[in-house]
Design goal:
The protein is mainly alpha-helical and 214 residues long. It folds into two domains: 99 residues, Orthogonal Bundle (Helix Hairpins); 77 residues, no CATH class. It has a two-stranded antiparallel sheet. Helix 3 packs antiparallel against helix 4. The protein is elongated and about 100 Å long.
């Protein structure tokens, strides 16, 4: 989730970052919504403050046996107006949060610009690229041919770009996960943690899971 304070202080830089992601300038509409929300917040706070002061004055007048009808009317008017303002402020806050959550992340300065993966820059490679006297099949064709990768069923369960692993591939995936955990906990000081499998939406928001993968 983007930091609204950064956008307030660096609108041009933010728009430049969004342009690198192929988007039109965003800061104008974001800051307009932010300004409306902050104005409402100030108005609500002023009304709350005035209501509190007036309520105290009502008590003081009644304690002296003085008339307080004008203050009572003022407090009632404030109470009648505040729910509508609070609802409007809440709607603006929700709208702003949605935008800040759904916009793509700012790219690191070292990430090359490009339209797709074909524009990626090769930084380094490891080992020798083998050559074959036949046309090799990619891992998808091999896995599906072995009956150990199932993209069609995974797409029904989770959407595109997911796969169900079966048999030896599923076992290999489990072994690699165990190897990674064992290596990092035994050699690099990490503590293994097993969190609940089900969590609420707020725990997933802004972690790379929600709302993009909701």
């Amino acid at each position: 989730m983007h930091d609204i304070r950064f956008i307030r202080e660096n609108p041009d830089a933010f728009d430049g970052a969004m342009a690198r992601r192929g988007l039109e300038p965003q800061s104008g509409s974001i800051l307009e919504t932010d300004a409306k929300r902050r104005a409402l917040q100030g108005q609500i706070q002023d009304m709350q403050s005035r209501r509190n002061v007036a309520s105290k004055e009502i008590g003081m007048r009644k304690g002296k046996g003085e008339d307080a009808d004008d203050l009572i009317a003022e407090v009632n008017e404030i109470k009648a107006k505040m729910p509508g303002l609070e609802e409007e402020e809440g709607a603006l806050a929700a709208s702003l949060e949605t935008v800040l959550l759904e916009l793509p992340n700012i790219l690191d300065a070292e990430v090359p610009d490009g339209a797709d993966e074909d524009d990626n820059a090769l930084l380094r490679s490891w080992g020798d690229i083998p050559s074959f006297d036949f046309t090799p099949r990619d891992h998808v064709a091999v896995g599906e041919g072995l009956g150990q990768m199932d993209f069609a069923t995974a797409a029904k369960l989770s959407g595109a770009r997911f796969v169900i692993l079966r048999g030896q591939l599923a076992r290999l995936e489990r072994a690699l996960a165990a190897f990674m955990l064992d290596t990092h906990t035994s050699e690099f000081g990490y503590q293994e943690t097993l969190p609940p499998f089900l969590v609420n939406s707020s725990a997933m928001t802004g972690t790379g899971q929600l709302p993009k993968f909701g």
